[in-house]
Amino acid sequence: ILDLSYNKIEYYDDTPKFYQVVEKLNLSHNALLGPPYWIWAEKLKNLKEINLSCNNYITQLFTNGYFEELLEYKTLVTHITAYNCNLNKKYIKLLCTLPSVKSICLGTSELSNSSFANYIEEFPCAGLDKCTEVEQLNLINIGIFNITSDISIYKQLREIDLSLNGLSAIPDEFCLLKNLEVCILSLDNLLYLPESFNTLE
């Protein structure tokens, strides 16, 4: 475990000698201007959990092809927490580099830093559509107004939290999530539920 949270780190791109033994990396609440390059480039076999939350300017270095280069990599990370990173629809694509991910946390009910909340409007979106093995999704307060019929791609999904968004409806395909055990849709703008909602097991 490497916990560097609650510091003022702006860059962490030099690969540490111990990189292959790190299983959990917490860089939350720093001042990162970009995600650490080595997490993607070094083909880490043991790194399973990353927390990048509350790095409000983490997309600042996504220029001159750097972001596009990261998209070429695939990691074995299974848990990512990245709320309040100011990620928009474009930069959420970074999640396509985590095809093995089981747990994704992009939102929080803590509103004190919500001006830096991630914002995607529509779900699933590019990037998240590649995370089809995900079992837990936290999408609290990230500006979602629309859930598309593609929601049914998440066949392993057990928990989803869509609270504090702007949803007025959910599609019938939501009811195809047969493994769903926890579904939180509070503090949205839902006007009705799909007719098949009661068929959820």
Q: How is the secondary structure organized here?
A:
Elements: E1 2-3, E2 24-26, H1 37-41, E3 49-51, H2 66-70, E4 79-81, E5 103-105, E6 122-123, E7 136-138, E8 146-147, E9 159-161, E10 182-184
Parallel strand pairs: 1-2, 2-3, 3-4, 4-5, 5-7, 6-8, 7-9, 9-10
- Identify the quaternary structure here: single chain
Radius of gyration: 17 Å
Structural class: mainly beta
Query: So, the CATH homologous superfamily?
Result: Ribonuclease Inhibitor
Helix content: under 10%
CATH hierarchy, class: Alpha Beta
Order of helices and strands: EEHEHEEEEEEE
Q: What's the arrangement of strands in the largest beta sheet?
A: 1-2-3-4-5-7-9-10
Number of strands: 10
Q: Architecture in CATH?
A: Alpha-Beta Horseshoe
Main beta sheet: strand number and arrangement?
A: 8 strands, parallel
Mean of residue pLDDT values: 95
Distance between the termini: 38 Å
Pfam families: LRR_1, LRR_6
Protein name: Leucine-rich repeat protein soc-2 homolog
Organism: Heliconius erato emma
Function: Acts as a Ras effector and participates in MAPK pathway activation. Probably acts as a regulatory subunit of protein phosphatase that specifically dephosphorylates Raf kinase and stimulate Raf activity at specialized signaling complexes upon Ras activation.
Description:
The chain has 201 residues and is mostly beta strands. The chain has two helices and ten strands, in the order ββαβαβββββββ. The chain has a single domain (1-201), classed as Alpha-Beta Horseshoe (Leucine-rich repeat, LRR (right-handed beta-alpha superhelix)), CATH 3.80.10. The strands form two sheets. The chain has an eight-stranded parallel beta sheet, with no helix packed on it. Helix 1 (37-41) links the parallel strand 2 (24-26) and strand 3 (49-51). It is globular, with a radius of gyration of 17 Å. This is Leucine-rich repeat protein soc-2 homolog.
